[in-house]
Amino acid sequence: MSRFARFAAIDWSGARGVQHRGIALALCAAGDSPPSLVHAPDGRPWSRTGIADWIAAHRDAPMLVGMDFSFSAPFVERGAHLPGDSVTADARALWTLVEAESDDPDLGAADFIQARRGRHFYLGAADGAKRDFLHWRQCESTSQGERKPSTVYDAIGAAQVSKASFAGMRLLHRLSGTVAIWPFDPLPQTGLVLVEIYTAIAARAAGMRKGRSKIRDASSLDAALAQVGSAPHSPLPAYDDHATDAILTAAWLRRHAGDPALWSPPRLTPRIAATEGWTFGVR
């Protein structure tokens, strides 16, 4: 994986609207220079469409790009992404379905989720017992049986992993065939590669404790960057979770992109790769 010369991490958002303060893009070069934020060309907050265009514009670059949302929904556990609903044989078919049945602007998917409320997605107590909606992908279960705190079927709460992930699937549908999307595509010898990331993995690698992984000041960010082999950052106008998550994760991605074990995790079977995908950094 030494062919990558640049590394980007994107903190994502599934919020309604067309500009999103919750989106942050950080980029760094090979070596140890600190990642810096990349701002939208118009100087306004990034749109999801703007991020898709930025990725497509760099499709020929030797770049590894990590995006913080689930690239697919659970499949292996129940034999379907949306049991009893539309049949989707693999993740790409799911992306196509989400695109075809989403009318939200700027690659949003809130209406796709709302239309399936109570059947597949939990948005509140009126939908029944929350435990009935809790299903996970294989990469979201560790060898100790622990699970990530969120599932794509849970659409309530501040994290909004559900809306972010299904909005992200519209972006993946748009980019499919333009850039390589791992592990759904084999790794190409050249060009940009897109992977799913989980920013908490970078936080753990930087020595931050579970439940206290957010960075909101300059000294904490520099301390975390040092743990992943990066020089101190240039001062930011503001220290919010989105910017610092993206900066730290870009540096983490650079440090670990050359680890062969992360590209061939033993639990990643061809069926899982095609239907559910995998989070880069999960063994």
Provide a count of the helices. Answer: 9
Order of helices and strands: EEEHEHHHEEHHHHH
**Sequence of strands across the biggest β-sheet:** 3-2-1-4-6-5
Percent range for helical residues?
A: 25-40%
* Largest sheet data: 6 strands, mixed
Q: Care to count the β-strands?
A: 6
What form results from the Cα inertia axes? globular
CA distance, first residue to last residue? 17 Å
Care to describe what's here?
The chain is α/β, with parallel strands linked by helices and 283 residues long. It has a domain at 6-71 and 176-262. It has 9 helices and 6 strands. A 6-stranded mixed sheet has the order 3-2-1-4-6-5. Strand 2 and strand 3 form a beta hairpin. Helix 1 (48-57) runs parallel beside helix 4, helix 2 (91-100) crosses helix 4 (161-175) and helix 5 (199-205) packs across helix 7. The longest helix has 16 residues, at 241-256. The model has no long low-confidence stretch (mean pLDDT 92).
